[in-house]
Amino acid sequence: MHEADPKHNALLNALPTTAYAPLLPHLQLTQLTPGHSLYESGEQMKYVYFPIDSIVSLLYTTQDGASAEIAMAGPEGVIGVALFMGGGSTPDRAAVQSAGRAYRLQAAVLKNEFKKNLALRELLLRYTQALFTQMAQTAVCNRHHSVRQQLCRILLSVRDRTSSDELHLTHETIAGMLGVRRESISQAARDLQDNGLINYQHGRVSVEDRVALEAAACECYSVVKREYNRLLHRPVMRCAETTWVAAKRCKP
């Protein structure tokens, strides 16, 4: 497999050259395998990860071993926001949902650049706000919407991050993400398949009718997507000044 350009990650791609260049020598391509944990709950983080063609789930696990996804990130984002937010660790765990590649960056490099690189800081903070919106909306969704609606949200979210109508997801994986019984996912998937929205076979879901799938989903999917578009599709400062005073000379 050819080596992917780091700019296949939307955040890295959005950085101006002056902000991107200091990161480039430190970016390390790594292969992510399904189920692998990038960090565990309470563990000190050593890297942040910028996915290229992989998807990572952020999960909370209870004392009795039950878990549910609070957010997901793929080529649009970064894994490890606690590092630049000052925490260094977090109660959730990051587990690879969909195999692929990511570029990782050492914690020390990220922290140093975050302090002095205004464009990077601006973009990562915008992303964090979007991520918080996704977490809040997921909490509302899990409490108030049906399993069928939640399944539609998950399928659309994964499809957006893979840019493919062929999704590699098992009922068991989805059940773990939503924190529900596998049988509930099987029933909801069967209903979507009977209505021609998807086709499911041996751990592979084909999106057959994207428009109908969006109509069947709750508003949570569109709320989160709009917020990501609003925050991340705006230009960032076209320089990497150290101070806010100096930054007045920068232009978006």
In words, what does this structure look like?
The chain is α+β, with helices and mostly antiparallel strands and 252 residues long. It has helices spanning 10-14, 17-20, 81-85, 107-116, 118-144, 147-162, 171-178, 182-194, 210-216, 220-232, and strands spanning 28-32, 37-39, 47-51, 55-61, 67-73, 93-98, 100-106, 166-168, 198-201, 204-207. A hairpin with a 5-residue loop joins strand 4 and strand 5 (67-73). The relative contact order is 0.15. Residues 239-252 have low confidence and may be disordered.
Extract low-pLDDT stretches: 239-252
How confident is the prediction overall: mean pLDDT? 90
Number of helical elements? 10
What is the H-and-E element order? HHEEEEEHEEHHHEHHEEHH
What would you report as the Rg, rounded to the nearest angstrom?
A: 19 Å
Strand content: 15-25%
Strand order of the largest sheet: 2-6-4-5
End-to-end separation: 36 Å
